[in-house]
């Protein structure tokens, strides 16, 4: 009653004119009814409602209403969970790592072999509950852990500052050139070692640079984004730079064979041009206020026993990430070395262990679980098989393969994307004579492979993105903006590259 009287008094005091009446109404609406806190709360409720309601509609629709032939109940439920995950990751009605926990719970309750009895699917391939829960111990998670141990130990014993001093010195003090240096170093390392391991190392080196910038400088976000972008782009440069490249090489054999050197001949100019475009884009979107970066890094290398252990382990891990194949070790097994060494020697203590970004591990786990569901239930294959490629122009087929690859890679592992798409794309290319004048199998495989590496629009798109997101300096919208622009630019460049190579007779 008191509020109504208050509103009446405000209207009376405003007079009878239309202008004054509107002013009084605005005052009531803004100060009494919809405060900023209430508006924020309403927005959060709306985002949460949309993120839940739309997936529920998909979940309970009759399968025959879904315009995908061959889709079963399990695949339908995974589609609903996929839509839910996408909305939650983009709108962020809850913390982004919590979305990953929700994905795992939803998969366990609705499409696993230990799901709720009243929700048990009557048709479709159920997922093993052990496989879903096992995503938290997947090799990529161990690689993350190894990287976190290296970062913690490196920071603790000053290795990050010393490496920054040595590697960044040739690039001077201007922020734009320091960023260029970081991107070149990151891209070069990513050509020959794990993108995730490279990102961990480079984010460690970046720490002193960020510390030298003002607190609210937009350039901080630009520097952090530069690392995953350079890692993702740099990985394209060699057949071993990223798993999709290696998967593609399995199909580029015989008459379609592409050698290690030929791949680099195709890819290195692509990487250099896209990296340059990305550098200019970051300067435009995240200009640095500081005119100079005085990264005042002084001191000498710590010579204590534990510091020497850190240096030796760091060097050994990097070398094994680069050349581990010669001794039979892959990057995932190598990542266990720093975890074991630093734990046994108390370089990383219990207190340090608690500093690990567990939210990042959950974030990545959710992405892995989503990819597992898309692959094992056959939903991804069903979607691809429902696209009538044979009726399209060869140009549209190549473009569609690349766009499909980049779209899938934004929501699931680029490795899983390549594993799913390559067999179908190669089979399609071999069966269609219309693709031969455009480069045939080689052209479409290159476009799809490069497209898979262009998927970088979300924190969960690639491990480097997730690691950069863990810094707390960049948000999902930053990935959406830069990832979309760079991904789209990269796709267009891929089409131009493949077309040019074919015209020159090099495909």
Automatic annotation (TrEMBL):
Residue stretches spanning the membrane: 78-111, 131-154, 175-192, 198-214, 221-240, 260-282, 303-323, 356-374, 394-413, 425-452, 484-504
Highest taxon, organism lineage: Bacteria
Pfam families per UniProt: Na_sulph_symp
InterPro entries per the UniProt record, alphabetical: SLC13A/DASS
Coiled coil regions, renumbered to chain: none
Keywords noted in UniProt: Membrane, Transmembrane, Transmembrane helix
UniProt entry tagged with the keyword Zinc-finger: no
Entry's localization field: Membrane
Membrane topology: Multi-pass membrane protein
Protein name, as recorded: SLC13 family permease
Organism, as annotated: Algivirga pacifica
């Amino acid at each position: 009653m008191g509020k109504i009287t208050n509103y009446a008094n405000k209207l009376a005091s405003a007079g009878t004119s239309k202008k004054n009446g509107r002013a009084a109404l605005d005052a009531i609406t803004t100060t009494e009814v919809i405060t900023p806190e209430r508006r924020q709360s309403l927005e959060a409720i709306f985002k949460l409602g949309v993120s839940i309601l739309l997936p529920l509609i998909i979940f309970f629709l009759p399968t025959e209403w879904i315009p995908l032939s061959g889709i079963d109940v399990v695949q339908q439920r995974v589609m609903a969970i996929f839509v839910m995950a996408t909305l939650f990751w983009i709108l962020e009605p809850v913390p982004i790592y919590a979305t990953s926990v929700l994905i795992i719970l939803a998969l366990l309750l609705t499409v696993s072999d230990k799901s709720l009895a009243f929700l048990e699917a009557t048709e479709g391939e159920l997922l093993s509950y052990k496989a879903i829960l096992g995503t938290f111990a997947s090799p990529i998670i161990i690689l993350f852990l190894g990287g976190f141990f290296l970062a913690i130990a490196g920071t603790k014993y000053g290795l990050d500052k010393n490496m920054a001093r040595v590697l960044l010195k040739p690039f001077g003090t201007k922020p734009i050139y320091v960023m260029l240096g970081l991107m070149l170093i990151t891209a070069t390392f990513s050509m020959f070692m794990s993108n995730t391991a490279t990102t961990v190392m480079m984010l460690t080196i970046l720490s002193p640079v960020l510390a030298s910038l003002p607190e609210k400088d937009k350039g901080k976000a630009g520097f952090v984004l530069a690392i995953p972008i350079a890692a993702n782009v740099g990985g394209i440069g060699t057949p071993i730079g990223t798993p999709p490249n290696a998967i593609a090489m399995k199909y580029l054999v015989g008459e379609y064979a592409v050698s290690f050197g030929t791949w680099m001949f195709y890819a290195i100019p692509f990487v250099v041009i896209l990296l340059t475009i990305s550098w200019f884009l970051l300067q435009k979107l995240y200009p640095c206020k500081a005119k100079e970066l005085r990264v005042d890094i002084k001191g000498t290398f710590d010579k204590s026993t534990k510091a020497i252990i850190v240096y030796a382990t760091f060097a050994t891990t990097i070398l094994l990430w680069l050349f581990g194949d010669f001794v039979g070790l892959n990057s995932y097994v190598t990542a266990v070395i720093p975890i074991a060494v630093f734990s046994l020697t108390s370089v990383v203590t219990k207190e340090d262990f608690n500093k690990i970004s567990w939210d990042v591990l959950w974030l990545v786990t959710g992405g892995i679980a989503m990819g597992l569901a898309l692959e094992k239930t056959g939903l991804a294959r069903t979607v691809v098989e429902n696209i009538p490629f044979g009726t399209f122009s060869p140009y549209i087929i190549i473009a569609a393969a690349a766009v499909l690859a980049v779209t899938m890679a934004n929501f699931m592992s680029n490795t899983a994307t390549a594993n799913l798409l390559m067999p179908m794309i190669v089979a399609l290319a071999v069966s269609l004579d219309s693709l031969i004048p455009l480069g045939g199998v080689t052209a479409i495989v290159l476009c799809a492979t490069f497209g898979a590496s262009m998927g970088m629009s979300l924190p969960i798109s690639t491990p480097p993105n997730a690691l950069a997101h863990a810094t707390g300096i960049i948000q999902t919208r930053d990935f959406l903006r830069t990832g979309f622009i760079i991904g789209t630019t990269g796709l267009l460049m891929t089409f131009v590259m493949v077309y040019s190579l074919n015209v020159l007779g090099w495909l």
